[in-house]
C-alpha cells in the first residue's frame, strides 16, 4: 500500500499518536518530585539521554535505533547534582545512568574488582566474604558516596523511554509540569532523538514478511517540538539543546538556524567523532561572561571557526554571514589524551566544563529576571 507522507505539527502529532500507558503515573511522580524541590528552593534540570527507537510494526519485532549510549547525559547529570541541582534524568531504557555508568561498561566491569575472601577461623559462619580489590577502593568509595548522598537528599528522579513516541509524550508532560519552576527550570536535551518515524496509522500490525523481496518504508518527519517547548509548554525555562553533525562545517550554521527558529537560549554543537573533547556553545548576543580558558568565538575567533563559517555560507546564499553578527560561539576543549584512563592520572570529562558553564549562565538568567521583577 502506498500512502503519502504526512507533515505533522506538534499538535497533530499528539492528536493522532497514542500516549505511552505509563504516562499518567510518571507525571504524578514528577509532580511530587518537583513540589519537593520547589519547597526546598532548588533549581531543577531535566536531562534527556540516550537514543530513541522507531518501531516498524505494531507487534514490534524490528525497529530503527541510533548510536547514542547515554554517556553525555549520564555524566552531565552527575555534575549537575554535584552543583546542587535536582535532576530529572529521562533516559532510554538500559542506556547509561549516573553513578552506575562508571561500572557498566565492558571496559570496567564491576565483577572484575570484587574479590572472594575465604572464611576465617574466627568467623561465626563459615561463609566466604566479598571485598573490593584494594586498588579500586578509592574510586568506588567516591562514586558510592556521591550516589548515597543523592539518594539521601532525594535529588534524582529517573524516567525511562524507549521509542520516539514515548520520548515526545514524556517530554511534553514533564516540561509542562516544570513550568511551575519558571526560570529555575533548565532543560538539557542531550538525547539523540530520531528525526523520522512511522505513524501508527501506517504501521503493519504484524511482523513484516520477507517473502516480497526488498523492503521500502517511507517515514514521516518527527515534528520540531522545540518550538512549542519554548513558547507554550514551559515559558521561562532555560533551554539547552544539542546539535549533532558528522560534517564539522555544518555545526555552527545549523546551531544558529535552530536558535533562530526556536528562540531558546543555547545550542551546544558537537561533532560525532570529537564530542568527548570539543563542543561549541552557540547563543544569541549579548555576550555572557566567558569561562576560564574558553575561546571567545566573536572577539578572537580562531582560524578554524572562520573557515567553518565561510563554507557554511555557500549552502544558504550568505544568510549565515548576515546572521553571524548576532551570535556568539564559545568553544570548550579539553586534551583528548586526558579523556582516556591512564594509571596515576584522573580522567577529565568535558561534561564537567559544560555543566560549569551552564550553571553560570543559568544563574545569570535567574538573576536577570529577579533584577527585572524587583524594579
Ligand atoms: C547530542 O548531540 C549528544 O551530545 C550525543 C551524545 C547524542 C552526541 P552519547 O549519548 O552521545 O554520549 O553517546 N545529542 C543531541 C543529538 C540530536 O539528535 N540533536 C538534534 C539534531 O542534531 C536536535 S534536538 O538535529
From TrEMBL:
Residues 170-275 form the DNA/pantothenate metabolism flavoprotein C-terminal domain. GO terms for molecular function: catalytic activity. It holds the Pfam family DFP. This is DNA/pantothenate metabolism flavoprotein C-terminal domain-containing protein. Residues 1-10 have a biased composition (Polar residues). It comes from Gymnopilus dilepis. Residues 1-20, 291-322 are annotated as: Disordered. One of its GO terms (biological process) is coenzyme A biosynthetic process. Belongs to the PPC synthetase family. InterPro entries: CoaB-like_sf, DNA/pantothenate-metab_flavo_C. Coiled coil: none annotated. SUPFAM superfamilies: CoaB-like.
Amino acid at each position: 500500500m502506498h500512502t503519502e507522507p504526512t507533515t505533522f505539527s506538534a499538535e497533530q502529532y499528539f492528536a493522532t499518536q497514542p500516549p505511552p500507558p505509563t504516562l499518567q503515573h510518571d507525571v504524578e511522580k514528577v509532580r511530587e518530585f518537583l513540589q519537593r524541590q520547589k519547597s526546598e528552593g532548588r533549581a531543577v534540570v531535566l536531562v534527556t539521554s540516550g537514543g530513541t527507537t522507531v518501531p516498524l510494526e505494531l507487534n514490534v519485532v524490528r525497529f530503527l535505533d541510533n548510536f547514542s549510549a547515554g554517556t553525555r547525559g549520564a555524566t552531565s547529570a552527575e555534575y549537575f547534582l554535584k552543583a546542587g541541582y535536582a535532576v530529572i534524568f529521562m533516559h532510554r531504557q538500559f542506556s547509561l545512568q549516573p553513578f552506575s555508568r562508571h561500572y557498566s561498561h565492558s571496559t570496567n566491569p564491576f565483577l572484575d574488582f570484587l574479590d572472594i575472601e575465604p572464611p576465617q577461623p574466627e568467623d561465626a559462619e563459615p561463609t566466604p566474604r566479598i571485598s573490593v580489590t584494594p586498588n579500586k577502593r578509592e574510586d568506588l568509595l567516591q562514586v558510592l558516596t556521591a550516589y548515597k548522598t543523592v539518594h539521601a537528599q532525594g535529588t534524582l528522579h529517573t524516567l525511562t523511554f524507549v521509542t520516539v513516541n514515548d520520548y515526545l509524550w514524556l517530554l511534553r508532560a514533564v516540561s509542562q509540569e516544570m513550568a511551575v519552576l519558571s526560570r529555575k527550570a533548565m532543560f538539557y536535551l542531550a538525547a539523540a532523538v530520531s528525526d523520522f518515524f512511522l505513524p501508527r496509522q501506517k504501521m503493519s500490525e504484524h511482523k513484516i514478511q520477507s517473502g516480497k523481496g526488498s523492503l521500502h518504508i517511507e517515514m514521516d518527519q518527527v515534528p520540531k517540538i522545540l518550538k512549542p517547548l519554548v513558547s507554550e509548554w514551559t515559558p521561562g525555562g532555560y533551554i539547552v539543546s544539542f546539535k549533532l553533525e558528522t560534517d564539522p562545517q555544518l555545526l555552527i550554521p545549523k546551531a544558529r538556524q535552530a536558535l533562530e527558529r526556536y528562540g531558546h537560549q543555547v545550542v551546544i554543537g558537537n561533532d560525532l567523532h570529537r564530542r568527548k573533547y570539543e563542543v561549541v556553545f552557540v547563543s544569541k548576543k549579548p555576550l555572557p561572561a566567558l569561562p576560564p580558558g574558553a575561546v571567545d568565538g566573536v572577539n578572537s575567533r580562531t582560524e578554524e571557526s572562520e573557515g567553518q563559517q565561510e563554507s557554511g555560507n555557500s549552502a544558504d546564499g550568505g544568510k549565515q554571514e548576515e546572521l553571524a553578527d548576532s551570535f556568539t560561539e564559545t568553544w570548550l576543549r579539553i586534551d583528548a589524551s586526558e579523556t582516556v584512563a591512564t594509571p596515576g592520572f584522573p580522567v577529565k570529562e568535558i561534561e564537567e566544563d559544560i555543566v560549569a558553564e551552564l550553571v553560570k549562565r543559568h544563574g545569570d538568567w535567574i538573576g536577570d529576571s529577579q533584577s527585572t521583577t524587583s524594579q
